[in-house]
Model the fold of this input.
Amino acid sequence: MDEEEHEVYGGEIPVEGEMEGELDPHNADVDMSAADEDAVKELDEMKKRLKEMEDEAAALREMQAKVEKEMGAVQDPASAAANQASREEADSRSVFVGNGC
Done:
C-alpha cells in the first residue's frame, strides 16, 4: 500500500491495528464495568448527601419561620406606637446644624 500523507495530520495515517496503546476490546469491557460500578457508588453517595442537605435546609427554614413568628409576636402594635412616639419626641428636641456651602 502506498504511504498516504494527510493534509491536516501532516504525517502518515496509521493503519488500524498498528496504533500505539490500543486496548484489547475484551479487557476494555472489564475496565468499563468496574468504572461503571464506581460511578454508580459515587452517584449513590452524592444522592445520599443531597438528601441530607435538603433535610437540613428544610429544618433550618422551619426554625427561621418559628423565630420570625416569635419576633413578630414580641413586637406588638402598642409597643411599636410607643416607640414611634418616643422618636417623635426626640426629634422635636433636636436641632440640625449644617455647613451651608
User: Anything to note?
Assistant: The chain has a mean pLDDT of 77. Residues 25-74 form the longest helix (50 residues).
